[in-house]
Design brief:
single chain, 244 residues, alpha/beta, six-stranded mixed sheet, three-stranded antiparallel sheet
Length: 244
Amino acid sequence: MHARIGEKEILRGINLTIRDGETHAIMGPNGSGKSTLSAVLVGNPLYEVTRGTALFNGKDLLAMKPEERAHEGLFLSFQYPVEIPGVSMTNFMRAAINEKRKYLGLEPMGAADFLKLMREKRKVVELDPKLASRSVNEGFSGGEKKRNEIFQMAMLEPKLSILDETDSGLDVDAMRIVAEGVNKLRTPETSCIVITHYDRLLDMIRPSVVHVLYKGRIVKTAGPELAREIQERGYDWIKAEADR
């Protein structure tokens, strides 16, 4: 797959297959295309796919609207979660869940069942119950915003979750809570892409595979040990191999 923003080509031939139950980490230097890949997969209209295809459970992902991709089971945890003043977390999540249920041909979830589900899923990421009555992310700390992203993931039960530098700006305790939440939500039927610069999060989440993205292509793929080697040696040795 190739993609650009404006006239600038960023993805220059991404080849990637993720199977059920797998967690893939994507690392790489700044500007290599990591966040662009996540934006393209979820349908950010600023990016244009110029060549290639993307299939999601056998369906043409690129032919779907962003909301259809979400209803099909794609989820993105943002690096910088936005605030939505005036919209409570409770109303936001109930609307999201019932829109997905409508898409799948299911009846709306009743209020009692919804509140019970919220209580269960809040425990996954140790989210303060008081935050549910506040506007989405408004006044939340950085760690609370990231926990809230994983809480939304728990509520929506996606088939493929993309965590775009979710560990950015987190202290050790918040990172542990986020990682534990991700681990608790794993099933043999779901998959995850973890985009990160650091091996600390990967020590907690333990990916199946680690890829290095450089100049819009995956230039190296190996096991979890690759993340530690990058942390010790940096990216220069991989860049040198790729540029030969």
